[in-house]
Amino acid sequence: MFRSPNMISSFQFPISSSAPLRHCAFALKGVLVAVLWTSNSLSILALDLPQTDVFTAGEDGYHTYRIPALLVTQKGTLLAICEGRKTGRGDHGDLDLVLKRSTDGGKKWGPLELIHEEGGTAKVTIGNPCPVVDQSTGTIWLPLTRDNDRVLITSSSDGGQTWTKPRDITAEVKLSGWSWYATGPGNGIQLTHGQYKGRLVIPCDHRVGGNKDDKEGWDKAGRSHVIYSDDHGQTWKLGGATDYAMNECAVVELADGTLMLNSRSYRGKACRGVSLSKDGGAAWEPTTDDPALVESVCQASLIRTRWTGEQKESRNDVLLFANPAVPKGRHHLTVRMSGDFGKTWPRSRLVCEGSSAYSSLAALPDGEVGLLYERNDYKQLTFTRFPLTWIMETKDAK
């Protein structure tokens, strides 16, 4: 099957649909890799990372699971949140928000739990999870959307065991001229210092008008924006919007309190768009292109985290960025590291060379980093974890 290592690029090969789950290992260009046969495809993953399939298409009553959001509660429990798509893998239809939890750092995951659904079997699209933990209260706030039109928010004060009835905040966070709307997906943040300390910030995107029949025009009608709360989630306000041709985004707070919004871009540059805000997200500077962050027009994940142990005192906080790092297609999911708050991205490691798409990063309590990502043509949502030193170990990092 494998004629030459140099010929292998996507690692997706159809096999018998009746084949059981199997695996083996072999050396590819000096790197030990794992070969996983699933019901109808083959994927290759590096063996130097633990890989656990948390959600699998067809299980627990859902056709497909997509749009991951990974959250760590104040007690250290991991919540893997996503859309459960009942009858197909399309973005619109009968979609629910579901989760699984892990209390051992991602080794084992509990049963499926329902966060929110509407209408029984009606085609109501509940999606775009973008949770954030208020570190002062422990409450988890979870913004979501209904049919990419209405904006809802639910919360949990017991680590995601139970959730409040979602309330509609559309009037506070959506302007009348806006059409399509999405929260996240991924994660929100809480600001840690300065004038806006304690503010909860949720990255979002919307379209202003636009014609769905004109795909290029529809995509370029999009802008990224944020919503925020200064009263611990009780009320939410609309922040500023970026330039046009931006879409799904992620936000981080830099060392001086500046916010960085990193957006999926439709400018045709095959890279991410980056916008900065000096006022807590109320307004955004013009969006610039970052050619170091190659993208194929797909969602990405961005977080700020810090070194632990012996390296804590000698190193600054770092930014981590994950996406399919190719100009076309959705494969080669890669994690990049920046030690200068996004000015450069000198280190990177490949997580999955095969089919891989949306992802969600999270800083874990022990100093490692968790990553929940879509792989295998959207058939699995897979969790892996790694220490920051794993990214530094590669000899060919760019």
Describe the structure.
By secondary structure, the protein is mostly beta strands. The chain has one domain: Neuraminidase (6 Propeller), CATH 2.120.10. The chain is 4% helix and 47% strand. The protein has 3 helices and 28 strands. The longest helix is centred in the middle third of the chain and has 6 residues, at 215-220. The protein starts with 21 loop residues before the first strand and ends in a 5-residue tail after the last helix.
Q: How large, in whole angstroms, is the Cα Rg?
A: 20 Å
Tell me which CATH architecture applies here: 6 Propeller
Structural class: mainly beta
With strands numbered from the N-terminus, the spatial order across the biggest sheet is: 4-28-27-26-25-24-23
The low-confidence parts are 1-42
The CATH topology: Neuraminidase
Report the average pLDDT across residues.
88
Shape: globular
Annotation, overall tally of beta strands = 28
CATH class group: Mainly Beta
What percentage of amino acids are in beta strands? Answer: over 45%
- Tell me the domain tally: 1
How widely separated are the two ends?
31 Å
Percent in helix: under 10%
Biggest sheet details: 7 strands, antiparallel
Q: Given the structure, what is the number of helices? A: 3
How would you briefly describe this protein structure?
This protein is mainly beta and 398 residues long. Helices cover 4% and strands 47% of the residues. A 7-stranded antiparallel beta sheet has the order 4-28-27-26-25-24-23.
